Amino acid sequence: MAKFANRDQVVANLFIMKNVLVLCTGNSCRSQMAHGYLKTLGKNKVNVWSAGIETHGLNQEAVAAMKRDGIDISKHTSNLIEEYSEIEFNAVITVCDNAKERCPIFPGKKKKLHQNFEDPSKFKGSKIDRIAEFDRVRNQIKIYCTQFLQHEI
């Protein structure tokens, strides 16, 4: 009996939970961090996907930055936006200006939000300085995701 109750809850969540897409240029860093925060902080509120206009692979410095904040994104994959064309999103969040400019049109009613975050992978500096830059951008993304979940969902 519990097996069916669990399945029923999963099916119900598909209709109750909001579908959120986080979009960036390469789906390697900023969108992956936002995906991790939205999934963790929005548990039982949102289904989260992240994608890119291109795929650049998962940035290991982003994985390490998230791990330092207790979130494991090491199993995430870098995906193209076209892979999610069949999903009805309630909100699409672009996290870089390039993705906003190149974002495809999504039919239907949905929130389209934009917040540009600097790309920490482009930062030039020592290993310690790069860690600090990744953590700085990660913290900005965490604040944005927390506010998004409080005010937009």
Can you walk me through this structure?
With about 150 residues, the protein is an alpha/beta fold. Helices cover about 45% and strands about 15% of the residues. The chain has five helices and four strands. A four-stranded parallel beta sheet has the order 2-1-3-4. Strand 3, helix 4 (about 95-100) and strand 4 form a beta-alpha-beta unit. Helix 2 packs across helix 5 and helix 3 (about 60-70) packs across helix 5. The protein is globular.
List keywords for this structure.
4-stranded parallel sheet, 4 strands, 153 residues, alpha/beta
Strand order of the largest sheet: 2-1-3-4
The helix count comes to: 5
Helix content: 40-55%
Kindly provide the radius of gyration, computed on alpha-carbon positions and rounded to a whole number of angstroms: 16 Å
Q: Largest sheet, described in full?
A: 4 strands, parallel
Instruction: Output the helix-strand order.
Output: HEHEHEHEH
Task: Describe the structure in brief.
With 153 residues, the protein is an alpha/beta fold. It has helices at 2-16, 30-41, 60-68, 97-102, 127-151; strands at residues 18-24, 46-52, 91-94, 111-114.
Protein topology:
Layout (H helix, E strand, L loop, with lengths): L1 H15 L1 E7 L5 H12 L4 E7 L7 H9 L22 E4 L2 H6 L8 E4 L12 H25 L2
Parallel strand pairs: 1-2, 1-3, 3-4
Helix pairs in contact: 2-5, 3-5
